[in-house]
Amino acid sequence: MHPFEAMAEPVRRRIVELLASGEMTSGQIAEVVGSEYRVGRTASCKHLRVLRNAGFVDVRADLSWRWYRLADRGIDALEREVVDLRVKWARRSGWDAESTEKFDPLAAPPPYAASWSVPFRGPGRPARRGLRGRQTDIPAAPDPEQGLYQILPMPMRLYAGEMAGYNVPLIPLSSGYDIPQLGYGVFKVPPADTERVVLDALELGYRHIDTAAIYGNEEGVGAAIAGSGIPRDEIFLTTKLWNDRQAGDEPHAALEESLRKLGVDYVDLYLVHWPAPANANFVNAWKKLVAMSEGGAVRSIGVSNFLIEHLEQIESETGVLPAVNQIELHPAYQQRDVVAWCEARGIRIEAWGPLGQGKYDLFGAPAVHDAATAHERTPAQVVLRWHIQKGNIVFPKSVKTERLRENADIFDFSLSDAEMAGIDALDPGDESGRVGAHPSTLN
Ligand code: NAD
Known about the structure:
By secondary structure, this protein is of the alpha/beta class. The chain has helices spanning about 5-20, 45-55, 75-95, 190-205, 220-230, 250-260, 280-295, 310-320, 335-345, 365-375, 380-390, 400-410, 415-425; strands spanning about 30-35, 35-40, 55-60, 65-70, 160-165, 165, 170, 180, 185, 210, 235-240, 265-270, 300-305, 325-330, 350, 395. It has 13 helices and 16 strands.
């Protein structure tokens, strides 16, 4: 008998409790179907991670659902995972086990709610926040069936991407993992300064770091992660395969090297940095990344600087699409064709050079300047907010603590449709806004 069948009843009950608690799901509700557990494609990745850590294996998937089956660890693993998560969430939300006797978080805002930028409930609390604003209703009355869950003020804390008072939305990737929509990129951060600035960013609350083998600063990133004391699984770490290592088995060797320099045993996202078409190796590189994604050292795989022709080629030759395409994207250069192609296929867009790398007068453009004045924000904040509202994943770079803080402080205001349209119109549509290299010619 499959272990799932032996466990079927307790597991089914626990899953139903988890679902009822509202913490484990968002979007489509999961169901137990026969000996399998069916999860909507839009279910939160926290949910999927719990399943995976609890010993569920992904057995198949289609466009709408994923099917999981319990492997050999059983209900105990699921329970252990639940307990670990409780501790983690409690730590994040400031919830204190000692104080649960004293107040009922479902009835009243916890004392520390006063410092939150979004009201605990009532007028002023938006029904949806950010891209993943599927907030679960607070149950009218505690439900004894919900066991552990009713005591956590989790309805406020569905965002694991919170940082130092900012709620960074988590974007679900096709791999089943989530990526914090805002991160910190370290292109051109000198290796000697990297540890300090990445530590700074982590202390400010950034939980997503974008580096690359070619940046030469993976060691500094790794040292900062190790020195931060933040659990590895709370940081989303991206690195990239450089163009001269796309051939043969080189991608595997390059990954090993990056992992060693970063001092980690997995990366959250590994990207083919450029298609480098003249070398004709990017399909080989992509096949190797697909193989890597089936092991434990790479959680999600993607590409960078891929045009539609490159994407079509990897799709036709491997049938596997990347989770993200990291491309140059800022108001004067929006690559709408690539974005539309990717969006239609569930490929997330990461915008590099989100501030145009300071190479043109973006901040002086009236659409940006006027919105900044209207919202009493800096032009950089307005541009980053525009990206967030577009759904782009961004990781602006700065080595100044003040700017790191400023760049993260973009989650408590919104640009109007007219302001968004004004910034949209900054792309003349003729490629003249490009500030970086062209993917067809960089090799
Ligand atoms: P960016 O648009 O983030 O611009 C960085 C510049 O903006 C810096 O010089 C900084 O001084 C300035 N800046 C940052 N915050 C500011 C603020 N609040 N006010 C005023 N100026 C500010 O460009 P980027 O660094 O090239 O892109 C971000 C990240 O994207 C990189 O660090 C890297 O991780 C990634 N990237 C990837 C590729 C690729 O090929 N995949 C290429 C370039 C960059």
